[in-house]
Design a protein that fits this description.
Blueprint (H helix, E strand, L loop, with lengths): L8 E11 L4 E11 L4 H14 L5 H4 L5 E6 L16 H4 L17 E5 L1 H4 L2 H18 L6
Parallel strand pairs: 1-4
Antiparallel strand pairs: 1-2, 3-4
């Protein structure tokens, strides 16, 4: 089955982002996910899994997340942004009524779950982009003289 992108029992990694500014991120692995379920159904399953996971702090478990976005697809290039892929919102944000397969979600896709209405406005996205560029510059090896 190598190379088969139409698997029905997907394993998906969800990056639960509580705070963009403080980079408060937890990872949740969702197994045996049907590619036919809608993004809204998948979001409910992730939120239910979060509520039952006592290893995750309650501030993260009870936060009102409302948006799923594709972070990266398997065997594709990853974003250099340490928090979230800030490009292509129109293409990568999952619509609640659309099945996961229709949105392009395949086995081993990484998704981000976050709250759109407050933390992901245009001003925050531009701040994230500028901060990630600054972080890349700071982490780049300095040239020894």
């Amino acid at each position: 089955m190598s190379g088969d992108t139409r698997r029905d029992n997907l394993i998906l990694t969800v990056r639960v982002i509580r705070s963009f500014e403080h980079r408060n991120i937890r990872h949740v692995i969702m197994r045996d996910v049907s590619s036919a379920i809608t993004a809204a159904e998948f979001k409910k399953a992730v939120l239910s899994s979060l509520e039952n996971d006592t290893s995750i702090p309650s501030a993260v478990r009870t936060y009102p997340y409302d948006t799923l976005k594709i972070e990266h697809l398997p065997h594709k290039a990853k974003s250099n942004d340490p928090v979230i892929n800030t490009d292509d919102d129109d293409r990568l944000i999952l619509l609640d009524h659309a099945p996961l397969s229709e949105a392009g979600v395949v086995h081993e896709t990484a998704l981000s779950l976050f709250k759109w209405t407050i933390t992901y406005s245009t001003s925050h996205r531009s701040l994230l982009k500028s901060n990630s560029a600054a972080a890349v510059r700071c982490l780049a090896p300095s040239k020894a003289s």
